[in-house]
Amino acid sequence: MHRYKELDVWKRSIELATQVYHLTNSFPLEEKYGLISQLRRSVVSVSSNIAEGAGRNSDKQFINFLSVAVGSIFELETQLLISQNVGLVENDKLDPLLKDVEIISKMIFKLQSKLSPNT
Question: How deeply is 72 buried, as exposed, middle or buried, from its count of CB atoms within 10 A (0-12, 13-18, 19+)?
């Protein structure tokens, strides 16, 4: 079992979730069950899967949960880009979030390779 609260990738994903929640507070109410819900669920999934995987009994299981976290971070990136395309997010607010997405995805991949017995 790993101590997920000590993982920098988990800490950064929590920070990103907080930023996405603040961002979506400015979205129109009509997006409550659309992009707001999708963005929030995908960003919460990242840190949640890191934590859940860390609590599993093996590195193999942890790696699987990290794979789900990667899927969620890429889902988030896609939804952020859609939000920009439909005029809900300006570049100055989007760019830092996309940078965080890139950093977190790299951190997850690095952690996966560190845990993998094949490396």
Answer: buried
| Beta strand ranges found along 20-99 (DSSP E) | none
* CB 79, CB 37: distance < 8 Å: no
| pTM of full prediction above 0.90 | yes
Looking at the 3D structure of the chain, how many domains does it have? 1
Nearest alpha carbon to residue 5 among 39, 50, 43: 50
Give the residue numbers spanning the domain of 10. 4-115
* Strand, helix or coil for residue 3: coil
DSSP string for 87-112: TSS-HHHHHHHHHHHHHHHHHHHHHH
DSSP state of 1: -
Selection from 51, 61, 57 nearest residue 3 by Cα: 51
Q: The CATH number of the domain where 14 resides is what?
A: 1.20.1440.60
Summarize pLDDT for 52-96 with one digit per residue, the tens: 999 998 999 999 999 999 999 999 999 999 999 999 999 999 999
